[in-house]
């Protein structure tokens, strides 16, 4: 065959083509050779000489298709309504495939003739000035277009009604009047028939079918919800709604275009969840209180899809955790309050954290509620805010118990674990500075009295605090630590020094030299005391050694913190007893005499009354001494108990080891109050120095932001500090506004 | 009283039996606190306690300042004391003690 344009007889060629089209469009058998010939015929018509006959071919083909579809329309309706969908689907299946073949047959016409005349994408989307109806389409598209206008336009509404009835039947679990395949195929034909469109390809589907479908479904959901509501059981209702949503999604996947899935579930949620929120909430409280995991999980799943519906559930959970937390730590009594407090809190925290992870899929809203609740419980002040919050103290004590020697029966890794956990609580504490005060006091006691279980654990813990709160928070703790290692070094050097000079102190001497200011020991506790002569040499030697090594330093001996080991030789067995220096001094006086009055002892040792009685009583209570009166008075005579016996040969007189008294706790809290004022004043001065002029509220905010790390200051306190700085003339109110301050250089 | 007198006898018995001392001090764990031997706790130049590092040192060496006392104290012949850091800046401008206006000369340094 020649490709050269030549004269063609249109009528004859069209006749041949038309016969073949019929075969193609009805999926009849078309032999390969015939196909090839028609393919060439299309070509020769398009390039015919002298005039190309492409437009004529197009017009004839279009007319043929219109006639064909009109014939099919009759056939579809032949068997009545009952078979309408089935017939439609049958012919559609045939026609849609046939039209694709036809498209291939007209390949040349499509590519050479039509595509060159086609509008560009941009023109389609934004519209073109001459989008007249005379536009030619590619043959495949033309076929679909003809189907839409010739078949769907007249039949559409009837089809949709039948389709909706079929879906209703499916919902009612009745047998379907037509096959699923036919229903799905028919519905999807609304999509496919416009599949070639670049602009709004789903429009027909959405308008013709989806919209009525969603409306009908909405009604159905409403009815269903009303029916389910009659049982008045929220758990059951939620279960059923969940199943319902699943079913509907499954149905949508079976019948509909995938773009409809979200819309279906959204409708379902609107009618079955959003419209009945009150009903769902009515059981919310009980569900949360009973911690009914399955219900809560259902509730979460359902509410998640409705905007702003979760808040009530979140708040209920928050309240519940608060209540549980307060119950867990309320009314704690006895020796182990601090342990119970922290561990109960942790139990509550971990329990609800887990619940939120499992039931609410770690939803941020619920995590936030957990934080809020913990914050509330941990910083709760009992008695309507009158009592101070004890959490900082209790937590510090808890750490103390863990870090002390003789944490019975707990392995090192367990202690580590518990300390790490306590940081969880620590992070919620508002008054971190109070915690720091207590912690540093307890750390000082542990270090000085050598009660620390492991220096490594101590250090890890300090580093954890540093991580949570920053360097400044732990700098004093670090300095205490450093003093310990410096002292160890010092002791070694002192021993070397003694050896070089051949000095024998007569006792085993060890010392901690602490840096003033770093240790929370207070200043007032240095008491007059005349040292027993046995110790004088040690003190003298060490002082000269120390002053030789360091310049310009003075040493203050903290006798109330010193400890001595004394061998008792006056009893049947020999005992070694660990006592405090004052106790030791009292005992040593009995070396040369059997009985002394309290006054004599006190005068010799020059101890103040309080110290003397406290230590004397401890010796009487431990039965090392006898007193001749019930209560110790100046005239009371003390004697050595020569019949003293103890099962252990090494023991410690513990009675006089100071207990953390209520007074001490108050002192700590008061000193915190003072520190806070200083801290806030410093912060205000810093801020004002850099800002020069600042409005009242802005200043308060900045101060608050700076101090948040270690405590939450009250606005009142900040105001007080501003006032006192104005009095001290660091800052002043600006002339034009009383709500504004300026820095006075 | 009778009980007490019996105890006295006991006591005497024991003493005869053993000539050992009644109390032997084996070990003494002492605790002492050191501070700069100064008349006034605060440095008149930076208004910080002399036991703490001076204002500049606190601000600068925040990171590796592990309680190391690099910021020592200095005494003048007039016996007034200051942070060494503070004083060495001061004398650049005015070689007199800020408190008594005597010519500044160092008597001793803390170590």
UniProtKB/TrEMBL annotation, chain A:
Give the matching SMART domains: CULLIN, Cullin_Nedd8
Report the InterPro entries cross-referenced here: Cullin (IPR045093), Cullin-like_AB (IPR059120), Cullin_CS (IPR016157), Cullin_homology (IPR016158), Cullin_homology_sf (IPR036317), Cullin_N (IPR001373), Cullin_neddylation_domain (IPR019559), Cullin_repeat-like_dom_sf (IPR016159)
**Keyword terms of this UniProt record:** Acetylation, Isopeptide bond, Nucleus, Phosphoprotein, Ubl conjugation, Ubl conjugation pathway
SUPFAM superfamilies (UniProt xref) = Cullin homology domain, Cullin repeat-like, Winged helix' DNA-binding domain
Residues annotated as domain Cullin family profile: 390-620
Q: List the subcellular locations.
A: Nucleus
Q: In which pathway does it act?
A: Protein modification; protein ubiquitination
Q: Which Pfam families match?
A: Cullin, Cullin_AB, Cullin_Nedd8
A single Gene Ontology CC annotation of this entry is: nuclear lumen
A single GO BP term for this record reads:
protein catabolic process
Give the family, as the similarity comment puts it: Belongs to the cullin family.
> PROSITE patterns attached here?
CULLIN_1, CULLIN_2
Tell me yes or no: is Ubl conjugation among this UniProt entry's keywords. yes
This chain's protein is named: Cullin-2
From TrEMBL, chain B:
Q: Which residues cross the membrane?
A: none
Q: Which Gene3D superfamilies match?
A: Zinc/RING finger domain, C3HC4 (zinc finger) (3.30.40.10)
Q: Which reaction does it catalyse?
A: S-[NEDD8-protein]-yl-[E2 NEDD8-conjugating enzyme]-L-cysteine + [cullin]-L-lysine = [E2 NEDD8-conjugating enzyme]-L-cysteine + N(6)-[NEDD8-protein]-yl-[cullin]-L-lysine; S-ubiquitinyl-[E2 ubiquitin-conjugating enzyme]-L-cysteine + [acceptor protein]-L-lysine = [E2 ubiquitin-conjugating enzyme]-L-cysteine + N(6)-ubiquitinyl-[acceptor protein]-L-lysine
**Chief place where the protein resides:** cytoplasm
Give the enzyme's EC designation. 2.3.2.27, 2.3.2.32
Annotated GO MF terms:
NEDD8 ligase activity; ubiquitin protein ligase activity; zinc ion binding
What does the UniProt entry say about where the protein is found?
A: Cytoplasm; Nucleus
Q: What are the protein's UniProt keywords?
A: Acetylation, Cytoplasm, Metal-binding, Nucleus, Transferase, Ubl conjugation pathway, Zinc, Zinc-finger
> Which Gene Ontology CC terms are recorded?
Cul5-RING ubiquitin ligase complex; cytosol; nucleus
Q: Which Pfam families match?
A: zf-rbx1
Q: Which residues form the RING-type domain?
A: 54-101
Pathway involvement of the protein, from the record? Protein modification; protein ubiquitination
Q: What InterPro entries does its record include?
A: RING-box_E3_Ubiquitin_Ligase, Znf_RING, Znf_RING/FYVE/PHD, Znf_RING_H2
Biological processes, Gene Ontology terms? intracellular signal transduction; proteasome-mediated ubiquitin-dependent protein catabolic process
- According to its UniProt record, which protein family does this protein belong to? Belongs to the RING-box family.
Assembly and partners? Answer: Catalytic component of multiple cullin-5-RING E3 ubiquitin-protein ligase complexes (ECS complexes, also named CRL5 complexes) composed of CUL5, Elongin BC (ELOB and ELOC), RNF7/RBX2 and a variable SOCS box domain-containing protein as substrate-specific recognition component. Also interacts (with lower preference) with CUL1, CUL2, CUL3, CUL4A and CUL4B; additional evidence is however required to confirm this result in vivo. Interacts with UBE2F. Interacts with CSNK2B, the interaction is not affected by phosphorylation by CK2.
Q: What is this protein called?
A: RING-box protein 2
